[in-house]
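Methods — Computational structure assignment.
A single polypeptide chain was analysed. Its primary sequence is given first, followed by the predicted tertiary structure written as structure tokens.
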Amino acid sequence: MIIDAKHIEDGLRLEADVCIVGGGAAGIALALELSRRSLKTVLLEGGGFKPDPSSQSLYGGENVGLVHEAPEDSRSRFLGGSTNCWGGWCRPLDELDFETRDWVPNSGWPIRKRDLAPYYARAGALLETPEPDYSLAHWAPEIERLGAALMPLAGGDFVNVVDQLSPPTRMGRVFRERLRAAPNLKTFINANVTHVATDGFGCAAQGVEAMTLEGKRLSVDAQVTVLAAGGVENARLLLLSNQIRPTGLGNGRDLVGRYYMDHPRVQLTRVRAPDAARFRPLYDALLHRIHRGRGDARARLEIHLAPSADAQRRLALPNSRTYLVGEDASDLTKSFFALKRLRRALNGRRRFGYPLSRMVKDVMREIPALVAHAPRTAAAIGDALLSPYLDKTEFLLESVIEPVPNPDSRVTLSERRDRLGLNQVRIDWRVTEQDRDHIRRLDRLVVDVLRASGVAAPADEHAANVESPELVGCWHHMGTTRMHDDPNRGVVDADCRVHDVERLYIAGSSVFPTVGSDSPTINLVALALRLADRITRDFEGARYELQAPAPSGQADVQAPAMAFVARSATG
């Protein structure tokens, strides 16, 4: 059942076994899994079925660190969450990404890849990438069908790596009917959670309080509460839940909101690849976007270059991914960045429902830069339109690096307040000098291996600004409620339970201690499915057992939750 909270009775109070906050990838995956296991579940989504500027404004806030999109411009506040603006890239984290590496400060997960391995195939099925195998050997027939070729890489320090591409799956649309029909699941839209309710000591979660933009209030009393609201909002909700503990829940050691990470993305050297036609179907990011926009079946996989595990150890490198971008050299001019900002303004209307007046204002802001660089702007437009049909030989190398977890990069509460009277976020995104050194070293290493392999050589030795490159993010918000067995070093434990707060869990990429170099989506969905197993064990094997659920069709959203029976001392 899906219920619009705008139409509920003010003051409605619900009871549930599990309350999930956030209807994005993690929240939807977890809700569907728990409802299948006969746990009475309430899923609360702050937005509706489509973008709405009034709702989107609740994501507003300040940026005080690196240049970053405004907080409300990089997240989607409607059912499906960030899958509504996701590019579709999928790849499980590498084995080494989970390990403690002495050359990556604050690295190390309390779990290993084998702990997530049973869940990746199911996560891929939900994301419509049903192939569980990411090996090059498995994809060799597909590569041959494309008439494409892998880059031959000399030396062994860099390897070719496979990503699978989701359509991309917009989970709020694809799974809407399943959410509507799922037994034991009540999904509320337009229900904005304001804080987590606890016992009188702040030691155990007891549910949440929520309200609509129209002022109607809603309470959920739950045995288990899960925050699945994204890498920024999970931290914000813990900090806002300060009614008992002044610093917020799980924040007794000042860790909530710290270690905020996005994947820094940078375009550096422009290279010339004479035999590029063989490599473009696999390595050219622009072609992937165009094929997928047309529903082309060729857009099932992407290949990128990454340092091997041995090279990472020997060269003391974090992880990274490098691919080609088949755009003109004007990508490095001010006109290109003006065009990118203009494109974001236009996408903002499509993705987030911003009013036409805001779009016009954003467009007007970019006109001076576009006029000043009109010839280069025209070249950029022409190249973007024609590039799929041109026999291109020149490309930018675009790299996405694994950032070093940095406690000074963080999300805190701003003094500004939103329409519900809640503190907005203040995002201070920082990268370390080690990250900048990584970018400089990586560019030299990739160029050297491409030259040594006879694949490509720099088209202009002076085109790259390696010392102070323009960094942009990937809208991957991660790390703010990091996982660690030691409560002095993490917000949640290996099972995603908040340290020192019983019955409160976190789902999503905010729990990542390190983030690899790839899209977080399939990994956070796998973690959500694993969390479903943990929560089920809590009910079935810990202190409580479940009575049989009400027969189908007889349960009511306002009825008491499934009854709990305390186990005997011998049970």
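Note: Residues 134-165+265-326+392-402+432-470 form one domain.
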